[in-house]
Design goal:
The radius of gyration is 14 Å and the shape is flat. The protein has a domain of about 60 residues. The longest helix has 18 residues. Helix 1 links the parallel strand 1 and strand 2. It has about 90 residues and is an alpha+beta fold. It comes from Streptomyces antimycoticus.
């Protein structure tokens, strides 16, 4: 992965803008990635190939679609934009 994979198909990588590393409950976990380092995801995202789009999601949790409703709206809006860009005839 670190050297790239040469994948030439479009890919969308979305990650939170922040991470929280803790072994106990922290209120930040409802607005950050508590599993992976979001900065590492964004840094490594372009490596699989040349057609990777990276989107950072403010207040997103690890499983982005489980974020609060306002954040989910942005996630789905970003996904819709990306789909329309790469699949203009198929996006709804």
């Amino acid at each position: 992965m670190r050297r790239g994979l040469g994948i030439d198909c479009p890919a969308l990588v979305m990650a939170s803008t922040a991470s929280t590393a803790t072994t106990e409950w922290d209120d930040a976990l409802v607005r950050t990635d508590g599993v992976l380092r979001a900065d590492d995801i964004a840094r490594l995202a372009p490596r699989p190939g040349p057609r990777v789009t990276t989107v950072r999601i403010r207040d997103g949790v690890h499983d982005l679609v489980l974020s609060i409703p306002e954040v989910r709206e942005r996630i789905f809006a970003e996904l819709d934009l990306w789909l329309r860009a790469y699949l203009p005839d198929r996006a709804g």
